């Protein structure tokens, strides 16, 4: 088991980020679904629970989904593993600003594989040491990785960096934010941080550590790409109401049902990823 805490810095307000994330997830989902691949929504409903985060009474949206990912897996995975290994099961609990997602593969790996992502969104500069209030044992195991959307070293230079979603050149008309500079998080306000504690577990003799590192190796790219897009789309979602967002989500959910059946496979292919590039972010898509 390998545990890392990713801290993604953004020039946004926490209360606005929720709308931006909901809208951006819907948009990004369109890019990743088609030709039998993508997300299948099985269940979506409100929840109240003391068990999702022990010691906290949470309420929000529970979602259960399947991700059909065969064409998005590395070629070696497609060659060596059966099709059942390419379908991932996701349960998520969105009680913003706290969120939790559990990803498993019951058709093949069963109890030998899971990824747990716990997220807290905070109006700070990423220096809080334990915003999720985890145990001392986890604190000793975790590795902290700070991610800045200005940096592009983790991205695929050919496919991930685009003029319209590059924070180094983008300037918001509605908010005046951007372009970002290398030291933007120290010279710009507002600044917020998405704290994401990711636990990866893959039990296979001889390759457990390698695969768990492989899983974590995909996250910097996935998180930076999504949040660069979220920021650079700010003028499209900044003034929307929650009613507007929910309408957009429902329209997108209907489009996804059509795309997964009839469209062509497209989107971000995982030549260096073991997981769907948007599985954790899609916990917010409302049917």
UniProtKB/TrEMBL annotation:
SUPFAM superfamilies found in the cross-reference section: Bet v1-like
Xref: InterPro entries: PI_transfer, PI_transfer_N, START-like_dom_sf
Cellular component annotations (GO), alphabetically ordered: cell periphery; cytoplasm
GO terms of molecular function: phosphatidylcholine binding; phosphatidylcholine transporter activity; phosphatidylinositol binding; phosphatidylinositol transfer activity
Protein name: Phosphatidylinositol transfer protein
Domain Phosphatidylinositol transfer protein N-terminal: 1-253
Source organism of the structure: Panagrolaimus superbus
């Amino acid at each position: 088991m390998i545990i890392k805490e990713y801290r993604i810095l953004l020039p946004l307000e926490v209360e606005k980020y929720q709308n931006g994330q909901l809208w951006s997830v819907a948009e990004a989902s369109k890019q990743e679904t088609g030709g039998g691949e993508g997300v299948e929504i099985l269940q979506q409903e409100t929840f109240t629970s003391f068990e999702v985060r022990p010691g906290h009474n949470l309420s929000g949206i529970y979602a259960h989904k399947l991700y059909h990912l065969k064409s998005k897996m590395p070629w070696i995975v497609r060659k060596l593993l059966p099709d059942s290994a390419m379908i991932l099961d996701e349960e998520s609990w969105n009680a913003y600003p706290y969120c939790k997602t559990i990803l498993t593969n019951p058709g093949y790996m069963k109890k030998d594989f899971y990824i747990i992502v716990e997220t807290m969104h905070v109006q700070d500069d990423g220096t809080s040491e334990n915003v999720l209030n985890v145990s001392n044992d986890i604190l000793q195991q975790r590795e902290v990785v700070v991610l800045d959307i200005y940096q592009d070293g983790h991205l695929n230079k050919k496919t991930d960096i685009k003029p319209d979603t590059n924070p180094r050149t983008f300037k918001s008309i509605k908010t005046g934010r951007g372009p970002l500079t290398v030291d933007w998080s120290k010279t710009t306000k507002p600044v917020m941080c998405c704290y994401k504690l990711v636990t990866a577990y893959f039990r296979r003799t001889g390759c457990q550590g390698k695969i768990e590192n492989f899983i974590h190796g995909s996250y910097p790219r996935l998180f930076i790409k999504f949040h660069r897009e979220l920021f650079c789309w700010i003028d499209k979602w900044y003034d929307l109401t929650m009613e507007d967002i929910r309408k957009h989500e429902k329209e997108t959910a209907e489009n996804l049902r059509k795309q997964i059946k009839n469209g062509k496979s497209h989107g971000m292919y995982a030549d260096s990823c073991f997981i769907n590039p948007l599985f954790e972010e899609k916990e917010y898509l409302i049917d």
